[in-house]
Endoribonuclease L-PSP (Nitrosarchaeum koreense MY1), 150 residues
Amino acid sequence: MIEEKIKSIGINIPVPPTPAGSYIPLVKTGNLLYVSGQIPLQDGKVAFTGKVSDENIETAQKSARICAINILAQLKKELGDLEKISRFVRLSGFVNSVPEFTQHPKVINAASDLLYEIFGDVGKHTRIAVGVSSLPLNSMTEIDAIVEIK
């Protein structure tokens, strides 16, 4: 059902991106999965780079959405079946923004809304959304996740 929902909204879950540093993409402990921060990588390249400001919020939202899709890719690789997810517990969203930008939640909402659209109540989660002075590879956004599995 989840896979069908994903396809119905026009998303193809990609092969998960390779870590850009000395870490692993996911750790399982008990019934929790901790997904490392995902940047907006598509086809091996950062799709959205640079600083977020009031003038490019929609672009930053696209960036956050790709981060969420990459989280799903990591989960799919680990679990094989996204139906095994019982709850998204938390997202931590980072926005590479100019100092005066204050709409970080609006940017990260794109990821949160996508998870709710796909998973319904299972996709509801706690969250932080913060602005930072830079992100790896100059990406606009980075998001990590904590997910509970059945």
